[in-house]
Write a structure and sequence with these properties.
The chain has about 525 residues and is of the alpha+beta class. It folds into four domains: about 130 residues, no CATH class; about 180 residues, Ribonuclease H-like superfamily/Ribonuclease H (Nucleotidyltransferase, domain 5), CATH 3.30.420.10; about 70 residues, no CATH class; about 80 residues, no CATH class. Helices cover about 40% and strands about 15% of the residues. The protein is built from 21 helices and 15 strands. The strands form four sheets. Strands 1, 2, 3, 4, 5 and 8 form a six-stranded mixed beta sheet that branches. Strands 9-12-13-14 form a four-stranded antiparallel beta sheet, with no helix packed on it. The longest helix has 17 residues.
């Protein structure tokens, strides 16, 4: 019985070993063949006019043909005829619904004594699919062209240390289809801020941006579903613009459009979910750290049927094709239209923080574009102010040049304006307002709202009670709206109890207690 021909990759290994000065005996032992066979292969290689280096560069069918590979099929006249038809076969197989079976039937009509179906499939695979695997793959997925985005259906979780509650999180998956290089992380929700943050992290992880982002049809990516022209959310469009790419979601109910990312999710279950199944985490940061360690192993693992890993293929053929990264990370932008208050500030966000605007725009509407780190204020298309974003509740961020007190122009609002307004409620109220504006290291505009609040309390509160509250504020040097408001709400009961119910508005002379905090302070 004839010996089964050796695979061309084994013959190449023999030639490489010979170049590296390995002995015939060692080569025979390593590749499980007789020394006679090794010598025969080496003799053919030495006698071939191409030389060993050029032979190693040949594709398997060409090398097999030169060695005959122990397979007489490549010396058969049928093969010479078959080679002339290869280009036609390749073009025909691109047609929709065309199969190798149908192609063979047509081939046998032209060549009745041609190859059988089994041999036809074999040579077709060797010379079209096997000879040009990278060409076919690049036709389907160009390096750096796309990044597929999806969420895993199953969720991971961690335990909150303070409440003991199990917090479930979403698993975000992004994959570059050319190399299969994958990014996986957990985020609190699929909300647009968390989603865009994860996309930004994925692009930074890959070290470059693809030319197209291909998300699934989730709400954070698509605002209106349409077969031909889906509406992309403003946030995703902004992110794509930031990185110089575009976004196009997959078609609805077309799972083949995102088959690779679905496969990445499936592999993530085996390579990441399964190893973490018995581990307990106490924060999303801790969870993501464990995921990152397993993800590195996954990307470095050799792919089935390949002699390279996802990371190797990415570094070799895709990383250099990605678009270069801008200097700054993407931050989601929000918009608001606000009116500049008389103190030259706008109030922004749920934290109700105040930002200054040039005083010439008092009373005008301005457009505010803000991110998690920056606030930009526009009027008539021009940026008039830029501030760092602050989340301090009720605080003030300002440029002193914006404020009316820094100019010679007169505005209705000023410290004297409020002091004069308070004078009609009595000397005590006037004194409170004077003390309010006595801080010299901060602009007076920062206290306009407090002054407005005190005057509003004066209008709404019984004069006797309000003057009593102001007198207490002066006595304890706590001339602020919040302190006076709390006294009014409690009707000064704690202080009156301290004075045994004998306190009079005209003669406020409280005894300063050593501890004025807590419910026991006035007992």
């Amino acid at each position: 019985m004839a010996t089964q021909p050796k695979k061309m990759n084994i013959i190449k290994q023999v030639l490489i070993g010979y170049k590296n000065e390995m002995s015939v005996r060692d080569l025979a032992a390593i590749h499980s063949m007789s020394p006679t066979t090794v010598q025969r292969y080496l003799k053919i290689a030495r006698e071939d006019p191409l030389g060993i280096d050029s032979l190693l560069q040949l594709d398997d069918p060409e090398l097999n043909h030169r060695f005959n590979g122990g397979n007489p099929a490549y010396c058969d006249k049928r093969f010479e005829d078959f080679k002339t038809r290869l280009q036609y076969f390749e073009q025909e197989l691109k047609h929709k619904h065309m199969t190798a079976q149908l192609l063979w039937e047509e081939y046998r009509q032209d060549v009745p004594d041609g190859y059988s179906l089994t041999q036809f499939r074999y040579h077709l695979k060797q010379n079209i699919i096997a000879v040009k695997p990278s060409t076919v793959l690049k036709m389907l997925h160009q390096p750096g062209a796309k990044m597929y985005i999806d969420f895993a259906g199953d969720k991971l979780s961690y335990i909150d240390m303070e409440t003991g509650e199990i917090i479930q999180v979403e698993t975000f998956v992004a994959v570059l289809p050319y190399s299969g290089y994958t990014y996986i992380t957990c985020i609190p929700s699929q909300g647009i801020e968390h989603f865009l943050g994860a996309v930004d992290c994925a692009i930074r992880f890959f070290g470059g941006a693809p030319r197209m982002l291909v998300p699934d049809n989730l709400r954070s990516a698509v605002k209106s579903f349409d077969k031909w022209s889906p509406g992309i959310t403003d946030g995703l469009n902004d992110l794509a613009t930031h990185y110089g790419c575009c976004a196009l979601p997959t078609r609805v109910r077309k799972p083949k459009d995102k088959a690779l990312v679905e496969d990445a999710v499936h592999k993530g279950y085996k390579r990441i979910y399964a190893p973490l199944r018995n581990r307990v985490f106490h924060s999303i940061v801790e969870l993501n750290k464990a995921i990152a360690e397993l993800l590195e192993k996954y990307n470095s693992r050799r792919m089935q049927g390949c002699d390279y890993s996802r990371a190797e293929r990415f570094l070799a053929g895709e990383k250099q094709e990605l678009l270069p990264l801008p200097r700054d990370c993407y931050q989601m932008k929000r918009h608001a239209v606000l009116t500049v208050a008389p103190n030259s500030f706008i109030q922004l966000g749920t934290e109700r923080h105040h930002y200054s605007v040039p005083n010439r725009l008092i009373g005008y509407k301005v457009e505010v574009v803000f991110t998690s780190s920056q606030v930009r204020i526009f009027h008539n298309g021009s940026c008039v102010a830029t501030h760092p974003r602050s989340l301090r509740s009720g605080g003030y961020t300002y440029d002193s040049h914006h404020l009316p007190s820094q100019t010679q122009q007169y505005y209705a609002y000023s410290p004297q304006y409020f002091i004069d307004k308070g004078n009609k409620y009595g000397e005590t109220v006037k004194h409170v307002l004077r003390e309010l504006f006595s801080v010299t290291d901060r602009p007076a505009e920062l206290y306009y709202r407090s002054a407005q609040g005190i005057l509003a309390l004066a209008k709404e509160t019984d004069p006797k009670l309000f003057n009593m509250a102001c007198g207490i504020a002066v006595k304890y040097d706590r001339c602020s709206y919040k302190f006076i408001s709390n006294l009014v709400k409690s009707r000064c009961q704690g202080y009156l109890a301290l004075q045994d119910g004998d306190m009079q508005t005209e003669n406020i002379a409280p005894t300063i207690h050593s501890n004025i905090r807590g419910p026991q302070a006035f007992k």
